[in-house]
Amino acid sequence: MGNRVAFWLTVVAFAVSACLTDGNAEPRLQLDESAHANLFCIDCHFYASAKEGGPNNEPLPTTPEYICKRCHSDKYSPFAEKLHFMAGDEHVLNLPTCIDCHGHHDAGFTAEARRALVSNCGTCHEDIFNMYKDSVHCTALLADGNLDVPACLDCHSAHAVGAEKLQNGPLKPEAICKNCHADKKLMDNYRLSTAVLTTYIDEFHGYVAEGMESDGSGPMLAGCTNCHGNHNISATGDTKQIKDRLITVCAGCHEGEAVIIPDSWLSHYIPSIIKRPLIFIATVAVKGMFLLLTIGFFLQLFIHAWRYLVGR
Amino acid sequence: MKINKENGSAIGVGEVRRFGRLRIIEHWVLLILFLLLSLSGFAQYWNSFAISQKIIALVGGEAVIRNAHFTFGILFTALLAVHLSVAIFGVLNKKWLPAMLVSGRDFLNMVQDLRYYLGIDDKPAKFDRFDYKQKFVYWAVALSGILMAISGAILYFPVLSLKIIPAAAIPLAKILHNGVALLFLVIAFWHIYESVFSPGSFPLDASIFTGTMPIERMEREHPLELQRIKEFFASSEGIMEEKCKKEL
């Protein structure tokens, strides 16, 4: 028993020292800094001695994801069902695998890595990257190093990038956008109102969107991305630009009166005496009437009770 | 106003007919439509509650309940239009008494009633065909109903409406439709209390369902109307005598 342990310890030591000599010190140093500091070289580079067969005992290709899957099978499964992997099945080279995003010896997901990822995806998705580049989110990300903004992975989950959802229409938008834009603490830093979500849901399109299933099925009228765009979201300062864009967007479903439809949208503003005073006054008036009538009703109850119980 | 006296076969002894058949039907239709509109409307308005979800699921989904609400709304608008047309025609052409119109006397009655209930005065106010509370309910329902009908139409046909109304009217219509719905709810509760549970009406003022009211109750609740009926009956008997004499 002791002999066996000693034997394997020697093998490991030999393998480790073999890795470290022969000019391989740098990977070990990188590994020590990474999330995999507790691993040995042979934990991944095992294929020199081991052969793992497929279901029909055919030899598997020694691409990296087959290595990562051994420990990270929960991340591998959604990846394996989705777009990047499926396209890889057709032996198209240059598709991203685990190490393209996570690195290998320096595997880990630091904030800087997230930033680098934008150009990473952009190497293949160049046209989308060009759209994203000018958006208010990307400007803040790349120029100011602002990590509060969404990059590729925040909307397109990394491992389960869904082809069918992207092609067949928007995902339930507030499920993604609201993660930031309904977070008061976050939005206060940028002086953006979190009422954008509630004003949207208050209105008919949002009301219907709320009725959608979380997987994106169900009727969908207009979500955040229909009006604001997705990759090329611009800041909302220029309302004329947005209104002009809205005319095309509204015309997509509403024929005929598309030119004036945007005027009927309160632009996420809660009516106040300054913004949309007429609607504000109407709101106050109906609420006031409701209060008045309710008070009157209870007053009558009280007066009746007074007469019949307390009076003669 | 149709006036009938006790002829034994139509109404019981000691009862006075107050409403004809059509008025009774109108009220029933209003009652049922209001219930249906409330259910289908508030299930959509307060759709985050479990009970609303249950109702929506029961009828077959969001689209079904939305269309049902619209259909009931159309029927309600039709009822409104028919009733108002008949009422105006009756008053102008057939010389019906415009008993529902509000006058200064109703405000005086209200003050008198308040004094009575607070114990300041001995006797309550005397009412004609409709007291000030009933007139309030009637006009509240009529005017709110018109607002609901118009705002509902705008909400159901927003793009079509833009041909005749400014764009800002659409969010306005939404505010009005939702707000006046709540007003309707309060009015309904108030009306049910007044007609069913109020000390003067308990157990139930059934005259809108049966069309008749016992004379003692008439003397208590609508003495001026009773007096008018008696006077007309007395004078009409005189007229009948004259007519018969002439024919003979």
Specify the overall morphology of chain A.
elongated
The biggest beta sheet of chain A reads: none
Q: Provide the succession of SSEs of chain B.
A: EHHHHHHHHEHH
Count of β-strands of chain A: 0
Report on this structure.
- The complex is a heterodimer of chains A (312) and B (248).
- Chain A has helices at 2-20, 25-33, 41-44, 65-68, 73-81, 83-88, 98-102, 111-122, 126-133, 136-144, 152-155, 163-167, 173-181, 184-188, 195-202, 204-210, 224-228, 239-251, 277-310.
- By secondary structure, chain A is mostly helical.
- The longest helix of chain A has 34 residues, at 277-310.
- Chain A is elongated.
- The relative contact order of chain A is 0.05.
- Helix content of chain B is 71%, strand content 2%.
- Chain B contains 10 helices and 2 strands, in the order βααααααααβαα.
- Chain B has helices at residues 21-45, 50-59, 62-93, 104-117, 132-156, 158-161, 169-197, 207-210, 215-221, 223-247, and strands at residues 15-17, 212-214.
- In chain B, helix 1 (21-45) runs antiparallel to helix 3 (62-93) and helix 5 packs antiparallel against helix 7 (169-197).
- In chain B, 22% of the residues are buried.
- Residues 6-10 of chain B have low confidence and may be disordered.
- The A-B interface holds A 203-204, 207-208, 210-211, 219, 254-257, 260-264, 266, 271, 276, 278-279, 282-283, 286-287, 289-290, 293-294, 296-297, 300-301, 303-304, 306-308, 311-312 and B 47, 62-63, 114, 116-119, 155, 158-159, 162-163, 166-172, 174-176, 178-180, 182-183, 186-187, 189-190, 193-194, 198-199.
Task: Break the fold down into its secondary structure elements and pairings.
The complex is a heterodimer of chains A (312) and B (248).
Chain A: H1 2-20, H2 25-33, H3 41-44, H4 65-68, H5 73-81, H6 83-88, H7 98-102, H8 111-122, H9 126-133, H10 136-144, H11 152-155, H12 163-167, H13 173-181, H14 184-188, H15 195-202, H16 204-210, H17 224-228, H18 239-251, H19 277-310
Helix pairs in contact in A: 8-9, 15-16
Chain B: E1 15-17, H1 21-45, H2 50-59, H3 62-93, H4 104-117, H5 132-156, H6 158-161, H7 169-197, H8 207-210, E2 212-214, H9 215-221, H10 223-247
Antiparallel strand pairs in B: 1-2
Helix pairs in contact in B: 1-2, 1-3, 3-5, 5-7, 9-10
